[in-house]
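Predict the assembly for these two chains.
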Amino acid sequence: MMKTRYWKVIRDLTSDYAKSSMLILAIAIGVFGIGTILGSYSVIKREMAVNYLGTNPASATLEIEGSLPQGLTDSVKKIDGIKEAERHATVVARMKVEERWYPILLFVVDDYHHKRTNKWTPVSGDSIPSTGSMLVEQTALVVMQAKQGDEILIKTSNGVARKIKVSGTVHDPGLAPAWQEQSGYGYISLSTLHALGESQGFDQLRILVNEKDQFSREYIKDKATSVAHYLKTLGYAVHEIQVPPAGKHPHQSQMSTVMSIFIVFSFMILILSSILVSTSMAMIMVKQIRQIGVMKTIGANSMQVTGMYLLMIVLLCMAALILAIPLSRLAAVAFYNQLAVLLNLEIRNTAIPYWVPLLQVGSGMGIPLVAAAVPVIRGSRISVKNALDNYGVALQAMNDPSVIVRFASLNFLNETFRLSIRNAFRQRSRLALTLGLLAAGGAMFMTALNVSEAWEDNLKRIYLQRLYDLEVRFTDPVRTDTIVQKLKKLPGVKAVEAWDYAATAISTTHSTEITATYPDKGHGSFTMLALPVGTPLLNLTLTEGRWLNDPSARDVVLNQSAKGLFKMGDRISLSIEGIRSEWKVIGFTEDVGSHATAYVSIHVFSQLVNTPGKAKMLRIAYDDRSKKNAIIRNQEVEALLEKEHISVASTIPVWLLRNAVASHMKVLVNSLLAMAIMMALVGTLGLMSTMSMSVFERTREIGVMRAIGATPVKIRNLIVWEGLLIGGFSIGIAFILSLLLSSYMGKTIGNMAFRTPLSLTVSFVGLVIWIIVIVLGSWLATLFPARRAGKITIREALAYE
Amino acid sequence: MNHSATKPLVELSHVTKTFPTASGMFSALKKVSLTIPKGQLVSITGKSGSGKSTLLNIIAGIDKPTEGGVRINGIQVDKLSESALAAWRGKNIGVVFQFFQLLPTLTILENTMLPMDFCDSYPKKERRDRALLLLDQVKIKEQADKLPSALSGGQQQRAAIARALANDPPLIIADEPTGNLDSQTATSIFELFAELTRTGKTVIIVTHERDFFSYFENTFVITDGILTNEPLNA
């Protein structure tokens, strides 16, 4: 049979459904957040590793001049520590979708029957493409606006446009989703590449080191260098070794950072919920102080009383856990599915690890218990006499700080409002907790909107920093003087400049340069961008030093991704196309959406690579920068280049770059917003709890006020004003906190998405929404207590014991 | 009645109680000494603020004297620690309040069982039967499963008396137990207290109501913290 005292605990909880439900909801929100984030994170982290490692990602890729012959891989495999070797080629081509050219990466596979590295999973159709057909990564179908069986017009830089049939689809988790990169992904055979008019062979050698050392980047570098030496002895020039972070998905570290922030936020929600539990338990203790006195009079000791109220918290927590754990599992499934789409993963094992619900139970019980322990223990240890003599608010609590007294004495203020000010400051520790709750909720809410707005601003910065609308890349250097003049004559073209570029690397002791580039050639890459020093087409944000001004100086400006440990005035050695060169660092920039880039003078660059008067890149600006105009103008530019028989490797409109960046992280910004709403909810619940407590404590006082003539309306107004005042104070604190938090969040998210921190932006919409939420929330939170206060009869209040 | 033959249950010697106030120290009790034998129904009376509730609190172990000693049933109560005092109080003192102070979310039966639970004084299986027996004794057995709010004031006070008897304490203390009841109900409550003394309980009641003084074997009058006559009916 259950002990009688436990019946009291249960009855107390069930006798005030509204209060208990509010507390359960508050704890449940925190536990839900933790479960959702940790559940999805644990699955994504595991599946990311399983998916990525399951592809047998090449430990290193060696870029070679010329073609590698069949049979070479067998001899490479004999080198100590090399487990697999495979010939490969990656070609950047263009595809025509709805009369527009988009980039497509063509992966040329040597042996479809015995694929050794960077494997994929067949999804539909053929698993081996015949000549004239290709397999397509499933996420690329949307970008290509195609389905299996369709034919896509593809043009390589040296070839002619030819239709290639989509004969099958695959899933390649080693690649970012195509819609994110705004690029197509196709897998073809060498014969198809030749059919497209290209004569090149396999110019990449992918190697896989032995399993026990597959996660040691130093070991991989060492082995790749050995292979490079070996190839050189055979007469092959290796101009680049690409060693991406070992065993890590291209987005793994970014995902970990974002999820870490979310986990911190989830715990913050639970901590704030626990503060709410703490304030509510303090309220229950105040409410039941006389009952505690009675229980102690009839024989209860402090331990027994403490146990009863702690049990109350445990029961609330259990109810919250029962509610939150299953819901959080559902939400985790939805969230990890979203993340899987974002990361191009296939969730093979959907099981959420057992430690997630265990942690939910531990934190969902532990944190509220710890938070509520202080008011519970304090309330339980009260002496019988003090408990029986308790009449509500202590006199010493009325010693207002002089500033409050002075403010509350201002004659022009309404009498009710003045009293509300004093009342708000009567219980300062509780006021601090409520303010803390609301301020934290508001800070997170405004942070989410600030970050969201900063995100949009940064997307705009893509246009503001890039004062051109189209980037055209050629496979080989072309003479640019004539074509630049012809392009300038096209209608709507404002400016055309010839630029150049090359993959580069910081020179090390290795004879061949080692980069961190992933097979998609984007992630981890480092580019040297050569441009006219006084170009009006670039408006980058200089963070230190100065921009290039001497066309013949070996000066370099590094962007934030390339900055590394360099400082102003350093002399650095960069390698391009196998040539090492010394450069002086004269400045650092912060450019939105660029991979690691070193900006140098095109004059010096062309001398270095011996291509005077030639370039591999054009940047074109239009009078009208709208996407609609850019699409039309781009087609005209493409047509002219085709007419002039200039083979184009790729064209990247700036709007396409903007879309690619925008789609990377938007879901995470939205998730941040969802968390902010949860925080706002917990904050409002906190205010509601405080106001109820405040009214309850002053039952007798309200009775006295009623007895001396205060009308119910006046009493109600007093309570509502008090709530609004507390809400109002919290806005100021929340705003200051939001600035600090926005700065941190903007830095983290910006670095992940744009490779540069988001600027600190204050969203006035966010501030206004929060003010409305607080005013409405405060009003709603005080509505019930105010009504209750207004309804207390004089007799009831004065008889209150 | 021959009280000299009865062993004293309550012995207070030179009890002084002072409280700090904004205007200095206030003496609520000044060198109060009294003895109350077992099995008596006695009252403490005095004007408001005279110190009678303080005296009652000190006898009940709710408050401790600043000076002097309190001996109840042979135990030097003022020397007990807070936790020992709680255990002692639960088993030795039954307290009845003016406003009944029944726990509102427990039924009358559960309210009566609660002291047995806190003091672990009766085996679990026997508690319900004992509580029902006590409720029968105070004539509200049929109300056992109701919540306090469903009962009249008199019934609630009877329930409070049943609760005070739960651990079979030798001493029952009641602070203005009829202050909130009509005279007919108050009479029935006093009769109940008188009946308890016949079963060997000692009952101390703080009251103003002179109409019921005839029930008391002794009445202590306290004025400004000083016991002015000890005892009135001795």
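The longest strand of chain B covers residues 8-21. The interface with chain A takes residues 57, 60, 62-63, 82-83, 86-87, 89-91, 94-95, 97, 99, 101, 103-106, 110, 113-119, 124-125, 127, 163-164, 166-167 of chain B (CB under 8 Å).
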